[in-house]
Write a structure and sequence with these properties.
Elements: H1 2-24, H2 28-40, H3 44-57, H4 64-81, H5 86-98, H6 104-119, H7 123-131, H8 135-147, H9 151-164, H10 171-185, H11 189-202, H12 209-218, H13 223-229
Helix pairs in contact: 2-3, 3-4, 4-5, 5-6, 6-7, 6-8, 8-9, 9-10, 10-11, 11-12
Length: 234
C-alpha cells in the first residue's frame, strides 16, 4: 500500500510539473508579439534573441521561412545601426545561412560583409566576399535596395558589379541605372550627366543608348517644357 501511494505521489508531481511547463510555454504569436515590442522599444538584441527562440522551438512551422527571413533582415538592420559591431551581426547572418540553400539573403549577407571589410580597410576579406557573389545577385541586391529607397546603396552595388564583372551581359543596364537613380531619385543632375556620358562611352549601340541621350537632354527640365517640345525617349 505504501509503495502504491509513493508511486501515485510521484505521478501526481510529474503531472503538476508538466502542466506548469505547458502553461509557461510560449506560442508562435507570443514570440512575434515579443519581437515587435522589443523592436518598438529599440531593443534590437532582445528582438534577435526572441527570433532565435521562435526558430528553435518551431522548426516545423509552416511560417518558418518567414521567420528565418525576418531574423536575417533584423540582423542586417542591427549591422546598419550598430556600425562598431556590424561584423558580429553580419557574420551571425552568414553562419546561420551557410548550412542552407544559398538564397538571395545569403548573397546579400556576403555583400554587406564585403562592404564592412572595405570600411575597415580589410581589402583581402572584402574581395573574398565580393568575388563569391554571382553577377545576377549583384543586380538583384541593387534593385532591392532601390525598391526600399536606398538609392546610394543601389548605386554602390551597381558600381561593385561593374568592378567585379565588367563584361557581365547586364553591365550596360547597370551603368544606365546609375545615371537614372542620380537623375530621378536623387535629383543630382551633375552626377547623372557624368553617369550617362560614361554609359554612352562604354556602351555604343546599346538598346538604351537613345534613352540615355534623351535623359541627358531633358532630365533637368520641367516636365511642361518637355511636353511642349514633344520630346520623348525612344
Amino acid at each position: 500500500m505504501k509503495y502504491y501511494l509513493s508511486v501515485m505521489v510521484v505521478l501526481l508531481s510529474f503531472i503538476v510539473a508538466l502542466s506548469g511547463c505547458q502553461k509557461g510555454q510560449k506560442t508562435e504569436q507570443d514570440y512575434l508579439s515579443l519581437i515587435e515590442r522589443a523592436k518598438e522599444e529599440g531593443d534590437m538584441n532582445g528582438a534577435i534573441r526572441f527570433y532565435e527562440k521562435l526558430i528553435k522551438e518551431f522548426p516545423e512551422s509552416p511560417r518558418i521561412k518567414e521567420y528565418e527571413d525576418g531574423y536575417i533582415r533584423l540582423l542586417f538592420d542591427a549591422a546598419e545601426k550598430e556600425k562598431k559591431t556590424a561584423y558580429y551581426y553580419l557574420n551571425k547572418a552568414k553562419l546561420f545561412l551557410a548550412g542552407r540553400e544559398k538564397t538571395g539573403l545569403y548573397y546579400e549577407a556576403l555583400y554587406l560583409l564585403g562592404r564592412h571589410f572595405e570600411s575597415v580597410a580589410d581589402s583581402t576579406r572584402a574581395e573574398e566576399c565580393f568575388t563569391d557573389i554571382p553577377p545576377k545577385e549583384y543586380f538583384r541586391i541593387a534593385q532591392d535596395a532601390q525598391t526600399r529607397g536606398n538609392s546610394l546603396g543601389a548605386i554602390a552595388c551597381y558600381r561593385k558589379l561593374l568592378d567585379i564583372y565588367p563584361d557581365y551581359e547586364k553591365s550596360c543596364a547597370a551603368r544606365f541605372m546609375i545615371g537614372f537613380i542620380y537623375s530621378e531619385q536623387l535629383k543630382d543632375y551633375p552626377k547623372a550627366r557624368e553617369a550617362f556620358q560614361d554609359f554612352l562611352r562604354a556602351c555604343p549601340g546599346d538598346e538604351l543608348e537613345e534613352s540615355a541621350k534623351w535623359m541627358l537632354e531633358n532630365m533637368d527640365k520641367p516636365i511642361e517644357q518637355i511636353f511642349e517640345k514633344g520630346s520623348s525617349p525612344a
